[in-house]
Amino acid sequence: MKVVGILPARLRSSRLPEKALVDIEGLPMFVHTCKRAQLAKSLDDVYLATDSEKIKEIAEAYNIKVLMTDSHHKTGSDRLAEACQGVDCEIVVNIQADEPLVRPEHIDSIVLPLLEDRNLQIAVGVTSYTKKESDSDIKAVLDLEDNIMYCSRTDLPSDVRTTVDVMLKM
Fold it and tell me: How distant, in Å, are the alpha carbons of 2, 23, 33, 89 from that of 27?
């Protein structure tokens, strides 16, 4: 099975303008992330998906393969979906371009279950968290078989029952 990693990247970050280009030890953030992703043993190829000519030029200077996408996408997942259409593969790994410390072995651990069980359609990396009240981190509740039951940007456990009651009343 061919497995590719695709890193959506844009310049119009809402909280930190041009976040993908932030300099870390002389390299743009997305370059660090791409180079780390290329170290994953499970990935046959790594691509950067962007709508930015500026990002494209920098990526190509570092021999990073680029998939150009439209600029209308609201999320990285939307950009990824468009980019996937031009790639011949069976498994796509969505890697956030703003994670310069991504560990290649974590990517491999997410891909492995998909290679072992052809019935699986998606795998998501999760870890325990310690940050309280962090809206930038997505928290997940897992069942006994490690399936995701619920995700939230608020701290967990949240009052799911209240949310359900409100939704049922609508």
Answer: 29, 5, 10, 29
